[in-house]
Records
---
Amino acid sequence: MNFELLALPVVFLISLTGIILLVSPDWRVSIAALAVQYFGVFVLVVMSWLLEMAIVKLVTGWMVCAVLALAKAGSSESIIEEQGTVMNVLFRLLAAGLVGLVVASTVPRILVWVPEITIEQLLGGWVLIGLGLLHLGLTSSALRVTLGLLTVLAGFEILYAAVETSVLVAGLLAAVSLGLALAGAYLLVVPSLKVAEDEIE
Amino acid sequence: MNAPLVWVLIPALLSVVMLVLNRWQRFVTILGTVTVLALAATAWLLPVKDQFFLGPLMINFTDTWAILGRRFVLGPADRSALVILYLAAAFWFGAAYVARTSSLFVPLGLAMVSLLTAALGVEPFLFAALLIEMAILVSVPLLTPPDSQVGRGVLRYITLLTLGVPFILFAGWMMSGVEFDLVNETFLLRASYLIGLGFALQLAVFPFHSWIPMLGKESHPYAAAFVFTMVPGAITLIMLVFSRDFPGLEPPQRLLYCCE
C-alpha cells in the first residue's frame, strides 16, 4: 500500500483532530479524536519505518485511548471542564489558527535544518506539537493535560521517526505513551480510590 | 552476571514484589531500606568487569547488558554515582514508615531508583531521557496518593518534565551527527541549545521551577522531598556522565569560537 499518497490528506486529518481535542467539551469526542489522530501518526511514521514497526504506534495509541476511556467511563460527568461557551470555542479556534500560521512560517527553515524529514511529516508533527502546547497552556484538568501531552508526544514521534529507526526507541516511546496514559488515568480516578476501598471493607 | 542486572533488574523486580506486599508497610519499608543499602554496598565493594569467587563458584561479572541492539553499561566510572543514588534512597526509605508516607512510597520509590539507574547506564545516552520520563511517571502515585485531590503542581510537574524529553532526544540525535562531523559548529551549537533547554526543563531551572513550590504545598512533604532529591539529583548525575563521555562538548572553546 502506498502510504505517501495518503500523507497530505492525513496532515489535514490530524490537524482537524488536534482542533477537535482543543475545542470539544465532551471527553468521548476527545478520545475518539485521539484515536483517529493515532491513525494519522501511523500513516506518517510508516513513511520512514517498516510497517511492522510503525504499527506499534497505532496499537499503542489505541491502547492509550482505551485506558483513558476506561478511567473516564466511571465518572458520571461527560463534560471535561467548562469550555462549551461560544466565545471559548471561538478563542480556541483563533489560537489554533495562530498556531497554523507559526507552523507555516517555520516549516521551510526546519526543512533546511533536518532534510531527512519530508514536508508532510514536518507539517503533521509540527501542527500536533503546536496544538498540544496550546492545549496544555489553556487547561488545568487532568484529562486535558494528558491529552495535550499525548498530542505533543505524538507530533514529536512523527518527526523523530524520520531520524531514528531504533527498535529500542520505538519500544521506549510506546512505553512512555502508555505510562502517560496510565498516570493520567490514575489522576482521573484517584479522588475516588479511598471510597472504593471503604466499599470493599 | 552483569552490573545492570544487579542494579537495575533486581531492584525493579523487588519493587514489583513490594507492591504486592504493600499491605505490610513496616516489613516493606525494612525490606526496601535493606535492599538499597545492600545495593549501595555492592556498588562500593564489588569488582565490576572482573571475576570473583563465591565459595567454589567462579562468577564472571561484566559491566554491560545488551538488549534490543543497545547496551546498558555500569562500569567502574559509574560506581560513585550508584553509591550516591542508593545511599540517598536508603536515607529516604529508612524513615518512610515513621513519616507516615503512603504504602506505595517504598515500592514505587525503588522502581524510580531502578529506572534512574538504567538511565545512568544506557547507551547511547539519548535513551536516558525516556527512562527518566518513566521514573517521573512512576512518581505520580507517590505525589498524589489515593483519596487525595489532584493539584495543579503535579500536573505542571508531569507537563514540564515530559516536555524536556523531546529536546534531549532530538539533541542526542543531532549530537550523534556531530560525532561524525566535528567541524560542524552550527549543528553543535543548535544541539547544545536543545540539550540545554531539555535539561533546564527537567532540572526545574528558572523559569521552569514553578512546580516545586506547588508540589511542596499539595503533596506529602516527605514524598515531595524524595522526588525533589532523587529526580533532579539523578538528572544532574546523568548530565555529568554525559558531559564526561561526549567528545563534542569537552572543549568549551569550540562553542566560544562558534559564537564569535
---
Amino acid sequence: MPFNDSSLSACLALIAVWGLIGLAGLLRPKSLGFVAHTLFPLGALCGLALAVVAAMSLTAPAEQAVLPIGLPDLPAHVRRDALTSLFLFLLGITSAGISVFAAGYFRRGQGTPPGLLCLQYHLFLASMGVVLLADDAYAFMVAWETMALSSYFLVTAQHAIPEIRRAGFLYLLIAHIGAIAILLSFGVMQGGSWKFTFDAMRSAHLAPQWGAIAFLLALFGFGAKAGLVPLHVWLPEAHPAAPSPVSALMSGVMLKMAVYGVLRVTFDLLGKPDWWWGLVLLAIGLFSALYGVVFAAAQTDMKRLLAWSSIENLGIIFTGIGLAVVFNGVGMHSLGALALIAALYHSLNHAFMKSLLFLGTGAVLHSTGERNLGRLGGLIHRMPWVAWLTLVGALAMAGLPPLNGFVSEWLLLQAFLFAHEVPRTFVNMMLPVGAALVALSAALSAYVMVKFFGVIFLGQPREPALAGAQDAGAFERAGLIWLALGCFALGLLPTRVIGALRLVVEGLSGASLQNAESPWWLLVPLTGRGASYSAPVFLVALTAVVMLTVFTVRLFYHRRARRAAPWDCGFGGLTARMQDTAEGFGQPIRHIFGAFFAMKRELPSAFDAAPRYRVNVGDGIWQGLYLPIGALVQRVADTFARLQQGRIATYLLYSFVTLIVLLALML
Amino acid sequence: MKVIELLTQALELIVALTAAPLFLGWVNQCRAWLQNRRAPSIWLPYRGIRKLFHKDAVIADNASTLFRMAPYIVFGAMVLAAGIIPSMGTRLPFTIAADAIALVGLLATARVFLSLAAMDIGTAFGTLGARREMMVGFLAEPALLMVIFVASIISATTALPAITENLATQSLGLYPSLAFTAIAFTMVLLAENARIPIDNPATHLELTMIHEAMVLEYSARHLALMEWASALKLFNYACIGFALFIPWGVSTGDNGPLGLLASVPLLAAKLAVTGAGLALIETISAKLRVFRAPEFLAVAFLIAVLGLLVHLLLGA
C-alpha cells in the first residue's frame, strides 16, 4: 500500500501536477500566450494548494510511504513531518507569487523558447518539493541534482551571452562539488549498515568523530548551495544572470533547501549535535553575514546587490542555527528553541522579502532594459506600483519595525541576550560579541537598502530613456502584492507564526519554548525574561501618531504649497549627473572594510590630457583562494596530459606495464 | 491599565513634545556663552518652528509623495520613541509593545525615511547627506545596540522600564562596564544628533554637513516638523542616557502622581547639566573631516563591545 495518509499523498500529487504543467509546456513550446497565461497561473494555483495542504498538515504526526518508482529493488521512500511541512509551505506560498509574476514577465525574445522554460521552471519547483519529501539518500540526491540541473538551464536561459554561460558553469561546478560532499556525508551516516534510508541513518550509532565528519561534510555540501563564505562565489554570478522570477526562486526558495538540508542532517539524522558544531556554524554564519552585506553595499548592479544580500541573510539564518546547536548542546533547551525559531522565522521572511525585491528589479529591468544602478533613478514617478511595493520589501529587508525582517532579528538578539549563560568559559564571553556582528550586519543592510531603493526609484532619472518607463502589468503587480502582503502578515502576526514554528522545533530538537500563554497580539518569547514586542500595537500607535500630526497640522495651519525648481545654490542647471551614484554609496564601505576587497585603482596623473579614473572592485576570496586552486588544478592536469602522447605504441606500453605490475603483486 | 500608568505615559509624551525645543535652546545658549557670544533667547527654537508653520510650503517639481510623507513619519517615530523611554516614570503601558531593540528600530525607521526623502529630489546635497547619514547610522546603530545590550544583560531583559528600575535600585559605581558604555553612548549621541565633531548644526552649505544637507529641500510646515523631530531626537537620546546611566529619581509609580510630579524637576536638572556638558564638548572639540567620522564611530562601537567584555569578564 503506497499511501497511508491523505496529506502526504496530496503533497505528492501536487508536486506531480507541477511536473505535468511543465510537460504541458512542450505541447506548444513556441506559444507564449498559452504558456504564460495558462500554465504559469496554473502552477501558481498548484503552489497555493501546496501551501494550504502543508499548513494544515503542520500539526499532523509524521507520515511515511514507499513509492514503487526508481530502480528495481530501490523504491523511493518519502516522509512528511513538521519540518518538511514548513518548508513545503514556504515553497508553495512564495512560488505562488513568483509564478503569477512570471506569467506577466516572460516575453518573446532570444534564448530558451517559452515552452522549454516552462518545463525547466516547473521541474525546478517539483524537484524542490521532492528534496523536502525524500526519505532516503537516493531519492534525495536525484531530486537535489534535478534541482541543480533545472536551475542551471534556467540560469543560462540567455545562453547567447558569454558571461551568462560562464556564470552557469561556475554554478554547476560548485553545485557538484557540494553534491559530492553531501553524498559522502550520507555515506558516513549510514554507519556500516549499507542502508541508505533516512530511517537507517537515524538509528545508526556513530562514534563522535564520525558524527562530526558527517556534520562537516554536510555543512560543506549544503553550505555550497547556501552560498556561505567561502563557497559563495557562484551566487553573485548565477542569481543575477537568471531571469528575474528565477532569481527570486533561487534566492528566496532554493537557498532555503540548503537550510532544510542542514537542519535535517544536524538535528534529525545525526540526532544529538555536539555543542561545538554550533560554534562552527556561528563563526561561518557571522562571517558570511558581514562579508555578504559589505559586498552588497559596494555593488553597482541591482541584481548582484540583492544576490550579495542573500549571502548576508543566509549568514544570519546559519548564525541562528549555530546558536541553537550551542544552546541545545549545553542543555539550555528553551533558548535553543528560541534561536532555532529565529532562524526558521528569518528563512520565511527572507523568502518573501528577497523574492519581492528580485521581482521588483525584474519589473524595472523589463521596462528600462537596465540593470546598472548608474543608469537608473527617478522611477517612482513612472512606476509607482513597483516602487511602493518594492519599498515594502526594502524596509522589511532593512529590519525596520513593524515589518517582518525586524521580528526575526529581534528574536535572534533576544536569544543572544542569554548567550553569556552558556556554562563554557571563554565561549560564554565570545558569544555575545556575535550579537555585535549581527547588529552591525543589520545596520549595514539598512544602508544597502537605502542605496538600492534610493538610487533606482528616487532622484532624477539618470538616463533620458527612463522617461518612457512603463509600470508593471496586472500579473506582475499581483505577484508583487502577494509577496508584500506576506511581508506584512509575517511582521504583524508573529505570535501565530511562532505558534506554528514551535511545533516544528519541538519535532526537530525536542526542545520547547517555555512561554506562558500570551494574547495573540503580544509576543513574549520567554516568560519573565527578555521582553515583549507587539507589532500590531506598534503599527497602530505609529499610524495614530502620524495621522494625528497630519490632522493637527491641517487643522491649525494652512496647507498651501507650491511647486518650484529644486534649490541649485544659485549656480543654475542642476543635472541628474550631479546626484550621488551607486559607486558613491559604495565608497565609504570600500574605505572602511578595505581588507575585504581586492581593489585595483587607476588614477589619472596631473598631466593627462583625458584623465580617467577607474576602480576595479574584486572579491578577495576569489583572488586569494579560487584562482590559486584553479591554477593548481590546471598544473596537475598539464602534468597528466604528458601521459597522453596520442601514439598507440605508448598506450600499449602502459597496458603492458600495468599487467606486469599486477602480476608481480599477485604472485 | 491603571490611571497612574496612563498619566505617566501622557506626561512623558507632553513633556517630550514641549521641552525638546527648550532643551535645544538651552544647549545653544550654553554654547554661545562658552564661546563668548551673546546668547540667543532660549525660546528661539519655538519661534522658529512657529514661523515655519505659517509659511507657504515650496516643494521641488520632481518631489514624490514619499518626500511629503517623510516629515510626518520622522516626527511620528520620534514622538513614539519618546513614549518608550522612561525619563520620568517607569510605568509606561506602551513599553509592553516595544522594548529597547524596538526603540533602536524606531530610530532606524526615522533615519531611513529621512535619507530616502533626501534622495528624492536628486540634488547633489541631498544625496550626499543621505549617504553620510546612513554611513554614520550603520556604525552608530550597532554601537547604540551594544550599549543597550550591556544594560540588558545586567538586567536580563531588554524592556527599558525594567532596566531602568533595576539600575536605579543599585548603588553608584557598581558597574565598570557601564562606564565604558557611557563613553560609547556619548559618542553615539554626538554623531546621531549631528553635533560637533561629526556634523555642525550651526552651518549651512558647508561641504561636510550631513543633517542640514538632507533637509535642504524642505520648507515651511515640513521643515518645522523636521526641526522639531531633530530636537525631539536630541531630547530622546539624552533621556536614553538618563534611563541607562543616571536613572535615580525616576518614579516607579509607587508614590502615585506625587512621585511622578517630583521626577519632573529632577529631569529638568539632569537636562540642564547634560545640555551644558554637551555645549562644553562641542566648544572644546573641532569638527572632524567626514573621512574621519567612521574612525570616531568605530571607536564608539569598539568601546561598547569592550564594555560588554568587561561585564562578562568581571561579572560586573
